[in-house]
Amino acid sequence: MNKITNKQGGYRICANKRFVMVHLNDVLTELKIWEGNRMIDQKRVEEIVEMYRKEAYEMIPGIIYIVRNLDNDFEIYDGMHRFQAARAYKCQKPSFNPYVKFYILDDFSLVNIDFQNINKSVPVSEIYINNGNNGIRRICEDVVKYLNLHYPDFKKPSAKCRKPHYNQDKFMDDLSNILKPSDNSEKVINALKFVNEQIKNDPQIIDISDISDIPPKCIANNFWLFMDPQWAFKISKRLTDSPPDLINF
Description:
Layout: H1 2-5, E1 11-14, E2 17-23, E3 32-33, H2 42-54, E4 64-68, E5 74-78, H3 80-92, E6 99-105, H4 111-118, H5 126-129, H6 134-150, H7 168-176, H8 185-200, H9 216-221, H10 231-241
Parallel strand pairs: 3-5, 4-6
Antiparallel strand pairs: 1-2, 2-6, 4-5
Helix pairs in contact: 2-3, 6-7, 8-10
């Protein structure tokens, strides 16, 4: 990334960390997303695109954190939604070319520690920082993609959202805690479907005699999972109880 490395080192804050500022055009196609990061929340990206559209930004808000990898390329490990939104809006409005402030970490071995420090106010699941959990992480991401595809109206940005909604990061954290390396995406999604119907037909949770107490979106989408705070326990039980030959995706 010549436009960054040619900035004469930028403003160095310590041996392995420095700041630089360049135009979006100069780095548009050269940055990758660090593989240890959370999966992209496309809805959040779209919301930021709308923010860029409404305001004449001359500089991307905040700082984009990047690390130099072992191939001497740069990867984003914090700020990916703001940068992805800038890319997306650039496609809609080619003249969009604000400044971008980068925090550069030159030592790739420190990226996990720095990532956790940045995100201390929002606890990061072990699936993002423990390489031994890559299989479980992929399952969680596949299940989230399934939910986002079929039930997008149930996802909320707040970690304390109310039923029948879910927060993506918290859901992945809760789900990862009940999975085993021997599980797979198809089996977990089928268990989720089974538990969804189980909750729907449980009169102690869903009282069909009082329809006024049932969120209309649950009825419209036939999705009830997060009406029950015990959803994770029930999925775990289904994964344990159901034999593999009964799983159909």
